[in-house]
């Protein structure tokens, strides 16, 4: 019944942080089950070779398909989504995290070198959904740190993992906008004051102010997000801001 996360990698130690903190507690409470597998367990030669030179030439090495196929045949339950982290993937988003959190589990295939032979993802798509995803426009040495990012984004959306449901519902990105600024005591600090509306006790005025801050911050930092909001997400007054 718990959400099952499986990771196949040649660096299983890199995934040790999955046992820490929020995720570790969720695992202890049986809300999520995390298994990390060493790809080399499915190699077939004494040197436990996982890579080879690219067809067509070029720099670097490509991960061989056969160890991946044997690993996935053993660890991937039928129909479970296979996630392949790659800088050449579709951008990972909060909406994807929410969709994946509603599924029974996920299998992550971490590539190193110049990636995994493309036929692995093509073949795996015959048995269930496959998502080749990137976590941003920069290049990492391998998919392991991207898996840490995606697993954290997904598991905190699982029922019961985060104590306060509201802190998930009001997250940055949950409504397609960035979250505005937050303040705590003291009301005046080193010449910087908390915006007075937050001390007013007028909850409707506070909600309006927060919405405006969200919109202004999103327009300044992430104008691309405003352009992707669904029709009718902004009132006429908000479109003028
Ligand atoms: Cl998911 N993997 C790698 N290797 N590099 C990345 C990435 C993923 N996302 C951005 N850069």
Automatic annotation (TrEMBL):
Primary localization: cytoplasm
Keywords recorded for this protein, A-Z: Cytoplasm, Methyltransferase, S-adenosyl-L-methionine, Transferase, tRNA processing
Domain tRNA methyltransferase TRMD/TRM10-type: 5-226
Location(s), subcellular: Cytoplasm
Top EC category: transferase
Entry-linked Pfam families: tRNA_m1G_MT
Gene Ontology MF terms: tRNA (guanine(37)-N1)-methyltransferase activity
Record field: catalytic activity: guanosine(37) in tRNA + S-adenosyl-L-methionine = N(1)-methylguanosine(37) in tRNA + S-adenosyl-L-homocysteine + H(+)
Sites where the protein binds S-adenosyl-L-methionine: 111, 135-140
E.C. number(s) listed in UniProt: 2.1.1.228
GO biological process: tRNA N1-guanine methylation
GO cellular component, one term: cytosol
InterPro entries, per the entry: Alpha/beta_knot_MTases, tRNA_m1G_MeTrfase_C_sf, tRNA_m1G_MeTrfase_TrmD, tRNA_m1G_MTases_N, tRNA_MeTrfase_TRMD/TRM10
Functional note: Specifically methylates guanosine-37 in various tRNAs.
Subunit relationships: Homodimer.
Family, similarity comment: Belongs to the RNA methyltransferase TrmD family.
Protein name, per record: tRNA (guanine-N(1)-)-methyltransferase
Species: Petropleomorpha daqingensis
């Amino acid at each position: 019944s718990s959400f099952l996360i499986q990771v196949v990698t040649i660096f299983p130690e890199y995934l040790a942080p999955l046992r820490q903190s929020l995720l570790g507690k969720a695992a202890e409470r049986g809300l999520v089950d995390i298994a990390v597998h060493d790809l080399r367990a499915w190699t077939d030669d004494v040197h436990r070779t996982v890579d080879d030179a690219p067809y067509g030439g070029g720099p670097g090495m490509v991960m061989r398909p056969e160890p991946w196929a044997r690993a996935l045949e053993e660890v991937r339950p039928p129909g479970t989504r296979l996630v392949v982290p790659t800088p050449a993937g579709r951008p990972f988003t909060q909406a994807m995290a929410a969709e994946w959190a509603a599924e029974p589990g996920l299998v992550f295939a971490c590539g190193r070198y110049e990636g995994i032979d493309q036929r692995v993802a093509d073949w795996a798509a015959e048995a269930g959904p496959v998502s080749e995803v990137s976590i941003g426009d920069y290049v990492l040495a391998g998919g392991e740190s991207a898996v840490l990012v995606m697993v954290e984004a997904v598991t905190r959306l699982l029922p019961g993992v985060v104590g306060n449901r509201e802190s998930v519902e009001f997250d940055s990105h949950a409504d397609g906008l960035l979250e505005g600024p937050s303040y705590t005591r003291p009301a005046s600090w080193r010449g910087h004051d908390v915006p007075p509306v937050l001390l007013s006790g007028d909850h409707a005025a506070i909600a309006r102010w927060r919405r405006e801050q969200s919109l202004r911050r999103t327009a300044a930092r992430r104008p691309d997000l405003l352009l992707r909001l669904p029709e009718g997400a902004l009132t006429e007054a908000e479109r003028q801001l």
